[in-house]
Amino acid sequence: MLPSTLSGQSEGLPDLVAGLNMPVTLANGEQVPLINFDNAATTPPLRSVLQAIENYAPWYGTVHRGGGAKSEITTRLFEEARGLAADFVGADRDCNAVIFVKNTTEAINKLAYRLAQNAGRRNIVISTVMEHHSNDLPWRGKFRVLYVEVDQAGRLLLDDLEKKLKISRGRVRLVTVTGASNVTGHVNPVGEIARLAHRYGAEIMVDGAQMVPHLPVSMKGSAGGDHLDYLAFSAHKMYAPFGTGVLIGPRKTFERGHSEIVGGGTVDLVSHQQVRWAQVPHRDEAGTPNMMGIIALSEAIRSLSRLDMRRVMKVEAGLSDYARRGLARVPGLVFYGDNQSHSHKVGIITFNIPGIPHETVAACLANQHGIAVRSGCFCAQPYVQRLLGVSPAEVKEAFTAPGKPHRGMVRVSFGLYNTKAEVDVLVNALRRLVE
User: What's the pTM?
Assistant: First the structure.
Protein backbone atom coordinates (compact mmCIF):
# COMPACT_ATOMS: atom_id res chain seq x y z
CA MET A 1 0.00 0.00 0.00
CA LEU A 2 1.02 3.65 -0.47
CA PRO A 3 3.49 3.27 -3.36
CA SER A 4 6.08 6.01 -3.88
CA THR A 5 6.60 7.95 -7.09
CA LEU A 6 10.29 8.32 -6.19
CA SER A 7 12.46 6.65 -8.80
CA GLY A 8 16.14 5.78 -8.85
CA GLN A 9 19.04 7.94 -7.76
CA SER A 10 19.67 9.11 -11.32
CA GLU A 11 16.51 11.23 -11.22
CA GLY A 12 17.07 14.96 -10.86
CA LEU A 13 16.32 16.18 -7.38
CA PRO A 14 14.12 19.10 -8.48
CA ASP A 15 11.75 16.58 -10.06
CA LEU A 16 11.01 15.05 -6.64
CA VAL A 17 9.27 18.13 -5.26
CA ALA A 18 5.79 19.47 -6.01
CA GLY A 19 5.01 23.10 -6.66
CA LEU A 20 8.21 24.19 -8.37
CA ASN A 21 8.22 26.91 -11.05
CA MET A 22 4.87 28.23 -9.86
CA PRO A 23 4.19 31.54 -11.65
CA VAL A 24 4.15 34.65 -9.48
CA THR A 25 3.32 38.19 -10.58
CA LEU A 26 5.94 40.85 -9.96
CA ALA A 27 5.30 44.48 -9.08
CA ASN A 28 5.64 45.43 -12.76
CA GLY A 29 3.01 42.89 -13.83
CA GLU A 30 5.49 40.40 -15.30
CA GLN A 31 5.12 36.73 -14.40
CA VAL A 32 8.17 34.67 -13.43
CA PRO A 33 8.70 31.25 -11.83
CA LEU A 34 8.79 31.40 -8.02
CA ILE A 35 12.20 30.66 -6.50
CA ASN A 36 11.90 29.39 -2.93
CA PHE A 37 14.91 29.99 -0.68
CA ASP A 38 12.89 29.82 2.55
CA ASN A 39 13.27 26.12 3.27
CA ALA A 40 14.47 26.57 6.85
CA ALA A 41 10.94 27.73 7.65
CA THR A 42 8.95 25.16 5.68
CA THR A 43 9.73 22.91 2.72
CA PRO A 44 7.39 22.12 -0.17
CA PRO A 45 6.00 18.57 -0.29
CA LEU A 46 7.62 15.69 -2.10
CA ARG A 47 5.52 14.35 -4.97
CA SER A 48 5.70 10.91 -3.37
CA VAL A 49 4.20 12.34 -0.18
CA LEU A 50 1.22 13.82 -2.02
CA GLN A 51 0.70 10.49 -3.78
CA ALA A 52 0.80 8.62 -0.48
CA ILE A 53 -1.79 10.95 1.03
CA GLU A 54 -4.07 10.49 -1.97
CA ASN A 55 -3.69 6.70 -1.76
CA TYR A 56 -4.50 6.63 1.94
CA ALA A 57 -7.34 9.17 2.03
CA PRO A 58 -10.16 6.71 1.16
CA TRP A 59 -9.06 4.57 4.10
CA TYR A 60 -8.94 7.42 6.62
CA GLY A 61 -10.37 6.25 9.94
CA THR A 62 -10.05 6.31 13.71
CA VAL A 63 -6.82 5.21 15.38
CA HIS A 64 -7.12 2.42 17.98
CA ARG A 65 -10.21 0.64 19.31
CA GLY A 66 -12.18 0.81 16.05
CA GLY A 67 -13.53 -2.49 14.75
CA GLY A 68 -13.81 -1.68 11.06
CA ALA A 69 -11.32 -2.07 8.22
CA LYS A 70 -10.58 1.64 8.02
CA SER A 71 -9.72 1.83 11.70
CA GLU A 72 -7.58 -1.31 11.50
CA ILE A 73 -5.61 0.02 8.51
CA THR A 74 -5.23 3.45 10.09
CA THR A 75 -4.04 2.00 13.40
CA ARG A 76 -1.50 -0.24 11.68
CA LEU A 77 -0.06 2.62 9.64
CA PHE A 78 -0.01 4.88 12.70
CA GLU A 79 2.01 2.40 14.75
CA GLU A 80 4.28 1.50 11.83
CA ALA A 81 5.16 5.18 11.58
CA ARG A 82 6.81 5.05 15.02
CA GLY A 83 9.25 2.44 13.82
CA LEU A 84 9.98 4.39 10.64
CA ALA A 85 10.73 7.54 12.63
CA ALA A 86 12.92 5.67 15.12
CA ASP A 87 14.93 3.92 12.42
CA PHE A 88 15.39 7.12 10.39
CA VAL A 89 17.29 8.75 13.25
CA GLY A 90 18.95 5.62 14.62
CA ALA A 91 16.90 5.37 17.81
CA ASP A 92 16.66 2.18 19.85
CA ARG A 93 13.05 1.01 19.45
CA ASP A 94 13.11 -1.05 22.65
CA CYS A 95 14.39 1.64 25.01
CA ASN A 96 12.85 4.74 23.45
CA ALA A 97 9.33 6.06 23.07
CA VAL A 98 8.32 7.76 19.82
CA ILE A 99 5.65 10.36 20.56
CA PHE A 100 3.77 12.21 17.81
CA VAL A 101 3.07 15.90 18.38
CA LYS A 102 2.27 18.94 16.20
CA ASN A 103 5.83 20.17 15.68
CA THR A 104 9.23 20.58 17.31
CA THR A 105 7.94 23.41 19.49
CA GLU A 106 5.28 21.21 21.05
CA ALA A 107 7.78 18.38 21.45
CA ILE A 108 10.17 20.54 23.48
CA ASN A 109 7.35 22.00 25.56
CA LYS A 110 6.14 18.47 26.29
CA LEU A 111 9.59 17.33 27.36
CA ALA A 112 10.10 20.41 29.56
CA TYR A 113 6.79 19.72 31.31
CA ARG A 114 7.56 16.03 31.80
CA LEU A 115 11.08 16.58 33.14
CA ALA A 116 9.90 19.31 35.50
CA GLN A 117 7.47 16.84 37.11
CA ASN A 118 10.37 14.90 38.58
CA ALA A 119 13.21 17.42 38.65
CA GLY A 120 14.01 17.28 42.36
CA ARG A 121 17.46 18.67 43.14
CA ARG A 122 18.46 18.60 39.46
CA ASN A 123 16.76 21.88 38.69
CA ILE A 124 19.22 23.30 36.12
CA VAL A 125 18.95 23.11 32.34
CA ILE A 126 21.90 24.25 30.24
CA SER A 127 20.80 25.80 26.95
CA THR A 128 22.84 27.99 24.57
CA VAL A 129 22.85 31.54 23.25
CA MET A 130 22.18 30.23 19.73
CA GLU A 131 18.83 28.54 20.38
CA HIS A 132 15.53 29.06 18.61
CA HIS A 133 12.93 30.45 21.01
CA SER A 134 11.32 26.99 21.03
CA ASN A 135 14.38 25.55 22.75
CA ASP A 136 14.66 28.41 25.22
CA LEU A 137 11.25 29.61 26.39
CA PRO A 138 9.80 26.18 27.35
CA TRP A 139 12.54 25.70 29.97
CA ARG A 140 12.05 29.07 31.63
CA GLY A 141 9.89 29.00 34.75
CA LYS A 142 10.39 25.26 35.12
CA PHE A 143 14.17 25.15 35.57
CA ARG A 144 17.03 27.51 36.24
CA VAL A 145 18.46 28.05 32.73
CA LEU A 146 22.15 28.65 32.02
CA TYR A 147 23.26 29.71 28.53
CA VAL A 148 26.44 28.51 26.84
CA GLU A 149 28.25 31.33 25.05
CA VAL A 150 29.22 31.60 21.37
CA ASP A 151 32.27 33.09 19.64
CA GLN A 152 32.20 36.07 17.26
CA ALA A 153 31.16 33.84 14.36
CA GLY A 154 28.30 32.44 16.41
CA ARG A 155 29.84 29.02 17.04
CA LEU A 156 29.29 27.27 20.36
CA LEU A 157 32.07 27.47 22.96
CA LEU A 158 32.41 23.95 24.34
CA ASP A 159 34.83 25.15 27.01
CA ASP A 160 32.05 27.30 28.42
CA LEU A 161 29.69 24.33 28.36
CA GLU A 162 32.12 22.19 30.34
CA LYS A 163 32.73 25.04 32.78
CA LYS A 164 28.99 25.32 33.47
CA LEU A 165 28.67 21.55 33.81
CA LYS A 166 31.52 21.47 36.33
CA ILE A 167 30.20 24.34 38.42
CA SER A 168 26.68 22.86 38.52
CA ARG A 169 27.66 19.20 38.77
CA GLY A 170 24.91 17.06 40.25
CA ARG A 171 22.23 19.69 39.66
CA VAL A 172 22.02 19.70 35.84
CA ARG A 173 19.04 17.74 34.54
CA LEU A 174 19.62 18.37 30.86
CA VAL A 175 21.82 19.98 28.24
CA THR A 176 19.56 21.13 25.40
CA VAL A 177 21.06 22.30 22.14
CA THR A 178 20.14 22.81 18.50
CA GLY A 179 21.62 20.30 16.09
CA ALA A 180 21.98 23.00 13.43
CA SER A 181 21.32 26.71 13.80
CA ASN A 182 18.41 28.17 11.87
CA VAL A 183 20.28 31.49 11.79
CA THR A 184 23.86 30.67 10.76
CA GLY A 185 23.54 27.05 9.67
CA HIS A 186 26.29 26.01 12.08
CA VAL A 187 26.11 22.27 12.83
CA ASN A 188 26.91 21.62 16.45
CA PRO A 189 29.11 18.65 17.49
CA VAL A 190 26.24 16.93 19.28
CA GLY A 191 28.23 13.75 19.90
CA GLU A 192 30.94 15.69 21.72
CA ILE A 193 28.30 17.68 23.61
CA ALA A 194 26.58 14.43 24.58
CA ARG A 195 29.84 13.01 25.96
CA LEU A 196 30.34 16.12 28.08
CA ALA A 197 26.77 16.04 29.37
CA HIS A 198 26.94 12.36 30.26
CA ARG A 199 30.36 12.74 31.89
CA TYR A 200 28.84 15.19 34.35
CA GLY A 201 25.68 13.20 34.99
CA ALA A 202 23.25 15.07 32.71
CA GLU A 203 21.20 14.03 29.71
CA ILE A 204 21.11 15.73 26.31
CA MET A 205 18.21 16.91 24.17
CA VAL A 206 18.79 17.92 20.55
CA ASP A 207 16.47 20.23 18.66
CA GLY A 208 16.72 18.48 15.31
CA ALA A 209 14.39 20.74 13.32
CA GLN A 210 17.22 22.04 11.09
CA MET A 211 19.39 18.92 11.32
CA VAL A 212 17.19 15.90 10.60
CA PRO A 213 16.04 17.09 7.12
CA HIS A 214 19.61 17.76 5.94
CA LEU A 215 22.06 15.33 7.59
CA PRO A 216 22.30 11.66 8.54
CA VAL A 217 21.43 11.36 12.24
CA SER A 218 22.00 8.52 14.70
CA MET A 219 20.78 8.80 18.26
CA LYS A 220 22.78 5.69 19.17
CA GLY A 221 26.06 7.46 18.47
CA SER A 222 29.21 5.43 18.01
CA ALA A 223 31.00 4.96 21.34
CA GLY A 224 32.05 6.68 24.52
CA GLY A 225 28.74 8.08 25.71
CA ASP A 226 27.96 10.15 22.61
CA HIS A 227 24.39 8.86 22.25
CA LEU A 228 21.48 11.32 22.26
CA ASP A 229 18.87 10.93 24.99
CA TYR A 230 16.15 13.06 23.40
CA LEU A 231 15.52 14.29 19.87
CA ALA A 232 12.74 16.46 18.43
CA PHE A 233 12.03 17.26 14.79
CA SER A 234 9.25 18.45 12.46
CA ALA A 235 7.79 16.89 9.33
CA HIS A 236 7.00 20.25 7.72
CA LYS A 237 10.73 20.96 7.37
CA MET A 238 11.33 17.59 5.69
CA TYR A 239 8.91 17.79 2.74
CA ALA A 240 5.83 16.49 4.59
CA PRO A 241 2.88 18.89 5.08
CA PHE A 242 -0.02 18.80 7.58
CA GLY A 243 1.92 19.64 10.75
CA THR A 244 3.40 16.64 12.54
CA GLY A 245 6.32 16.55 14.94
CA VAL A 246 8.24 13.79 16.67
CA LEU A 247 9.67 13.54 20.18
CA ILE A 248 11.91 10.55 20.93
CA GLY A 249 13.30 9.75 24.35
CA PRO A 250 13.72 7.04 27.00
CA ARG A 251 10.45 5.25 27.81
CA LYS A 252 11.22 5.49 31.53
CA THR A 253 10.99 9.30 31.36
CA PHE A 254 7.40 9.16 30.13
CA GLU A 255 6.33 6.28 32.40
CA ARG A 256 6.35 8.70 35.34
CA GLY A 257 3.60 11.30 35.59
CA HIS A 258 1.31 12.35 32.76
CA SER A 259 1.10 14.67 29.77
CA GLU A 260 0.52 18.41 29.93
CA ILE A 261 -2.59 17.75 27.79
CA VAL A 262 -4.92 15.01 29.00
CA GLY A 263 -8.19 13.55 27.78
CA GLY A 264 -9.26 10.93 25.27
CA GLY A 265 -6.57 8.43 24.37
CA THR A 266 -4.35 9.20 27.37
CA VAL A 267 -6.07 6.93 29.89
CA ASP A 268 -6.67 3.26 30.54
CA LEU A 269 -9.26 3.53 33.34
CA VAL A 270 -11.16 6.51 34.80
CA SER A 271 -13.53 7.08 37.69
CA HIS A 272 -14.51 10.36 39.30
CA GLN A 273 -11.90 9.67 41.95
CA GLN A 274 -9.06 7.96 40.10
CA VAL A 275 -7.17 7.81 36.80
CA ARG A 276 -4.97 5.04 35.49
CA TRP A 277 -2.94 6.47 32.66
CA ALA A 278 -2.44 4.63 29.38
CA GLN A 279 0.84 2.99 28.49
CA VAL A 280 3.68 4.97 26.92
CA PRO A 281 3.56 6.56 24.36
CA HIS A 282 -0.25 6.77 24.26
CA ARG A 283 -0.52 8.72 27.52
CA ASP A 284 1.26 11.61 25.78
CA GLU A 285 -0.92 11.66 22.65
CA ALA A 286 -4.24 13.21 23.65
CA GLY A 287 -7.17 13.26 21.26
CA THR A 288 -7.55 12.16 17.66
CA PRO A 289 -4.15 12.20 15.94
CA ASN A 290 -3.25 14.05 12.76
CA MET A 291 -3.30 10.94 10.61
CA MET A 292 -2.72 12.75 7.31
CA GLY A 293 0.37 14.27 8.86
CA ILE A 294 1.57 10.85 10.00
CA ILE A 295 1.12 9.43 6.49
CA ALA A 296 3.00 12.41 5.06
CA LEU A 297 5.85 11.99 7.54
CA SER A 298 6.06 8.24 6.89
CA GLU A 299 6.35 8.65 3.13
CA ALA A 300 8.85 11.51 3.47
CA ILE A 301 11.02 9.25 5.63
CA ARG A 302 10.77 6.40 3.11
CA SER A 303 11.61 8.72 0.21
CA LEU A 304 14.53 10.41 1.96
CA SER A 305 15.86 7.03 3.07
CA ARG A 306 15.81 5.71 -0.50
CA LEU A 307 17.46 8.88 -1.67
CA ASP A 308 20.05 8.51 1.14
CA MET A 309 20.65 11.39 3.56
CA ARG A 310 24.35 11.33 2.71
CA ARG A 311 23.41 12.22 -0.86
CA VAL A 312 21.06 14.95 0.36
CA MET A 313 23.86 16.39 2.49
CA LYS A 314 26.30 16.31 -0.44
CA VAL A 315 23.86 17.94 -2.88
CA GLU A 316 22.98 20.73 -0.47
CA ALA A 317 26.60 21.30 0.55
CA GLY A 318 27.63 21.75 -3.09
CA LEU A 319 24.80 24.20 -3.70
CA SER A 320 25.59 26.14 -0.52
CA ASP A 321 29.27 26.47 -1.42
CA TYR A 322 28.32 27.69 -4.90
CA ALA A 323 25.95 30.25 -3.38
CA ARG A 324 28.53 31.49 -0.86
CA ARG A 325 31.04 32.08 -3.63
CA GLY A 326 28.47 33.93 -5.74
CA LEU A 327 27.12 36.06 -2.91
CA ALA A 328 30.65 36.95 -1.78
CA ARG A 329 31.09 38.74 -5.11
CA VAL A 330 28.12 41.04 -4.45
CA PRO A 331 29.60 44.35 -3.28
CA GLY A 332 28.89 45.38 0.28
CA LEU A 333 27.08 42.29 1.62
CA VAL A 334 27.79 41.68 5.31
CA PHE A 335 27.59 38.01 6.28
CA TYR A 336 26.91 36.47 9.68
CA GLY A 337 28.42 33.30 11.02
CA ASP A 338 31.32 31.65 9.25
CA ASN A 339 30.59 32.27 5.57
CA GLN A 340 33.48 30.20 4.25
CA SER A 341 32.95 26.88 2.47
CA HIS A 342 32.46 24.67 5.46
CA SER A 343 31.61 21.04 6.15
CA HIS A 344 30.00 21.92 9.48
CA LYS A 345 27.06 23.91 8.11
CA VAL A 346 23.67 23.21 6.62
CA GLY A 347 22.40 25.26 3.69
CA ILE A 348 21.68 28.55 5.45
CA ILE A 349 23.27 31.92 4.63
CA THR A 350 22.41 35.15 6.47
CA PHE A 351 23.46 38.63 5.45
CA ASN A 352 22.59 42.32 5.37
CA ILE A 353 23.10 45.13 2.89
CA PRO A 354 24.27 48.23 4.81
CA GLY A 355 21.85 51.10 4.36
CA ILE A 356 18.90 48.91 3.30
CA PRO A 357 16.64 47.44 6.01
CA HIS A 358 16.47 43.65 6.00
CA GLU A 359 12.72 43.62 5.41
CA THR A 360 13.16 45.92 2.41
CA VAL A 361 15.72 43.56 0.87
CA ALA A 362 13.35 40.61 1.30
CA ALA A 363 10.42 42.56 -0.14
CA CYS A 364 12.44 43.68 -3.17
CA LEU A 365 13.59 40.14 -3.90
CA ALA A 366 9.99 38.92 -3.74
CA ASN A 367 8.23 41.76 -5.55
CA GLN A 368 10.83 42.45 -8.22
CA HIS A 369 12.34 39.00 -8.82
CA GLY A 370 9.97 36.35 -7.46
CA ILE A 371 12.52 35.12 -4.91
CA ALA A 372 11.25 34.03 -1.49
CA VAL A 373 13.68 34.54 1.39
CA ARG A 374 13.09 35.36 5.05
CA SER A 375 14.05 38.41 7.04
CA GLY A 376 14.02 39.29 10.72
CA CYS A 377 15.31 37.39 13.75
CA PHE A 378 14.06 33.91 12.77
CA CYS A 379 12.62 33.22 16.25
CA ALA A 380 16.13 33.42 17.71
CA GLN A 381 16.30 37.00 18.89
CA PRO A 382 19.06 36.69 21.55
CA TYR A 383 21.34 34.95 19.04
CA VAL A 384 20.64 37.48 16.29
CA GLN A 385 21.18 40.34 18.74
CA ARG A 386 24.55 38.84 19.65
CA LEU A 387 25.61 38.45 16.01
CA LEU A 388 24.49 41.98 15.17
CA GLY A 389 26.30 43.43 18.18
CA VAL A 390 23.12 44.88 19.70
CA SER A 391 23.96 46.35 23.10
CA PRO A 392 22.06 45.42 26.29
CA ALA A 393 20.94 49.04 26.48
CA GLU A 394 19.41 48.84 23.00
CA VAL A 395 17.64 45.60 23.89
CA LYS A 396 16.26 47.19 27.05
CA GLU A 397 15.09 50.20 25.07
CA ALA A 398 13.28 47.95 22.61
CA PHE A 399 11.09 46.61 25.44
CA THR A 400 9.95 50.14 26.26
CA ALA A 401 9.22 51.01 22.61
CA PRO A 402 7.12 48.13 21.22
CA GLY A 403 6.51 49.86 17.88
CA LYS A 404 10.19 50.32 17.09
CA PRO A 405 11.42 48.11 14.20
CA HIS A 406 13.67 45.22 15.22
CA ARG A 407 17.12 44.87 13.78
CA GLY A 408 17.48 41.68 11.80
CA MET A 409 19.00 39.88 8.85
CA VAL A 410 18.11 38.35 5.50
CA ARG A 411 18.19 34.54 5.38
CA VAL A 412 18.60 32.31 2.34
CA SER A 413 18.01 28.61 3.04
CA PHE A 414 18.29 25.71 0.61
CA GLY A 415 16.47 22.46 0.05
CA LEU A 416 17.50 19.37 -1.90
CA TYR A 417 15.60 20.62 -4.97
CA ASN A 418 17.18 24.07 -5.38
CA THR A 419 19.52 24.66 -8.32
CA LYS A 420 22.59 26.68 -9.25
CA ALA A 421 20.52 28.49 -11.87
CA GLU A 422 18.23 29.75 -9.11
CA VAL A 423 21.27 30.89 -7.11
CA ASP A 424 22.46 32.84 -10.18
CA VAL A 425 19.11 34.66 -10.29
CA LEU A 426 19.50 35.57 -6.61
CA VAL A 427 23.06 36.83 -7.03
CA ASN A 428 22.13 38.97 -10.04
CA ALA A 429 19.09 40.36 -8.23
CA LEU A 430 21.21 41.40 -5.25
CA ARG A 431 23.81 42.96 -7.54
CA ARG A 432 21.10 45.12 -9.12
CA LEU A 433 19.71 46.02 -5.73
CA VAL A 434 23.12 47.07 -4.42
CA GLU A 435 23.91 49.05 -7.57
Answer: 0.94
